[in-house]
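Data card: per-record layout.
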Amino acid sequence: MVRRRTTAEIRCRRGRATDSEWKARRRLLRNRKDLTDDQFATMWNTLLGEGKIGQTLLTAWIAKENLRNLLALARTRADRPQVGHARWKFLTWCADDAIPEVRQLAFTVDRWWPEIEAFIGTGHHNARSEGINRVIKLVARAAFGFRKAENQRLQTRCVTTRRARGHLRTAQH
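The structure for this 173-residue chain is written out next.
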């Protein structure tokens, strides 16, 4: 979103394949650990050379990386001072910049902090049930034209139990 908005504001058009920020779009979605040193250096140096567009994108990317580092503490069972420092680092990075999407992200994280802190402390989350609810709503919308409500329920049940029946292969397998 930051890339699209910034390109539209500065270039007064949509991004093109020749734009360096468009070429870097996939790398901006990846985390630092998944980038080789050459990929990271290429992305970093190219965007720094682009001026305001590149600096804006790198600032947003660093905010994303700080949030990833904060959430990764759930796997390490970090103590409160370590979590507090990672949160402070993320929030101050976001507050020091004028990118509206980054500020909104910081506001959202701050508003949801009790839930995020519980996730970091326990490692428990409701991602699976949220994903199933999303699929149920999607299927219910697609199955809206069924004449019998029983057929709509059957369609929803079939889709949401694919994993148990061996049809749904996720990254966890």
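Known properties of this structure: The chain has a mean pLDDT of 82. The first helix runs from residue 2 to 11.

See the next section for split statistics.
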